[in-house]
Every structure is written in C-alpha cells, then in structure tokens.
Amino acid sequence: MPAKPLFRLTPANLPAQPKKPDTLALGRMKAGVRNATEAEYEKLLETRRCIGEVLWYRFEGITLRIAKGVSYTPDFAVMLASGEIELHEVKGYWRDDARAKTRVAAEQFPFRILAITRPSRKKGAGWVFEEI
Of 126, 123, 125, 118, nearest to 75 (Cα)? Predict the structure, then answer.
C-alpha cells in the first residue's frame, strides 16, 4: 500500500504571492500613472485648452522608437491652436539618462520638445520651459 503524502499543496495553503510595487526602479511610475508634478502641469494644460491656446493633449500619448529596443515616451503630446504638435517632458529634476534620451529624440524627430520643470518654492512660482 502506498504511503500517504505528508503534505499536499492546495490553493488554500499556497504561500501568498507578493504584491507588485506601485513604482518601478529608480522611482519611476508605472505607465499611465501621473506623478504629482505631472498632475499639476496637466491642470495648466487644461487651462490653456479652455482658453483656446491648446486644442488637444494626452498624457503619454505618443511613443517614439529611437533605437533598436529603446523608446521614448514624453509625458504629454500637445497640439497647439496653430496645429503644431509639441512634446512636453515634465520633471521635478533631470537625471542624466533622461536628458540624453530626450536629446536623442529631439535630434531624430521633427517635433518641438520642451523640458518643463517646477522651480523650488524659494525660487518662486510658475514653470520653467526649456526647448531641447
């Protein structure tokens, strides 16, 4: 007669799966999730849309392939009232790898790419715009 197993795995006694973190490596957010700075900047874009300066915008609306296996997704794709498409990259601060990838995208594609940062409260309110 075969021996009875000492322990049988069933769904009830399986160990719990660890939860996936809400952020990715280096503090990056999951795709489609805005950080606080991006959410604040989106309010400015919505105001500009309401007064007619911006016709359309979309968070992470465009992804550009800049090399084999390397893509660049700007924070916002923005269509101005003139019909021009701009790509807006919103940062609390810049990491060197992000700035390099943004510069490569600006060299390869015919879009105006703007780097947008929020100054510290000590330096004043508003947004700082830099064309890449």
Answer: 118
